[in-house]
Write a structure and sequence with these properties.
By secondary structure, the protein is an alpha+beta fold. It is built from 9 helices and 5 strands; from the N terminus they run ααβββαααβααβαα. It folds into 2 domains: 94 residues, Methylated DNA-protein cysteine methyltransferase domain (Double Stranded RNA Binding Domain), CATH 3.30.160.70; 96 residues, Orthogonal Bundle (Arc Repressor Mutant, subunit A). Helix 1 packs antiparallel against helix 2.
Amino acid sequence: MKMDRFKAFFQELAEEPSGTPSSESKRRYFASRTISYPSPLGCLGIVAANQDNISHVFFMDDFPFNEPKHLLIQYPVLTRARELLDHYFAGNPLDVSEIPIQIDGGTPFQNSVWETIQQIPYGEFRSYKWIAEQIGKPKAVRAVGNAVGTNPVAILNPCHRVIRSNGALGGYGGGLDRKRQLLALEGQALEKLKSNTNLAQISR
């Protein structure tokens, strides 16, 4: 089961007539805990799972909610996430352990992939193959790629640091241009990735 609660929410909203009880219930849920963040790469939505944990960070072109003033008081973790992203986009290292993430609904396999992504240090990258080996599923590279693609917490759970073993960027839910820019922000010389003859760093 692929579980990206926010993507599923918008897909269901698009399929349901506006104003139906189901669509309004979903909208109220996310509207009650989501803020927008104007990043240099476009609008980010940040969703609080509770007062202390983030459940989603996602890129989107149009932010569909209003932001009640009480949100940052009710969910202090939203203020903390915004401060960390300010620090990050100013060109400073981001320690993803500084903000707790709570992702509900993932399969055990997805959760193991998402937890492994969090281990990739700032300014470095790893391959899908490396993740498969770390979780004890060395032949499940394609499945790892699918799980990376459904990571619901962009940047703070740094799936942009996962590339292919041959040095190609692979995919990214926020778009490859954003993936390139995030890696460049972290000091990667992107023009050298594909032609790099020493791929020990990304294959290990």
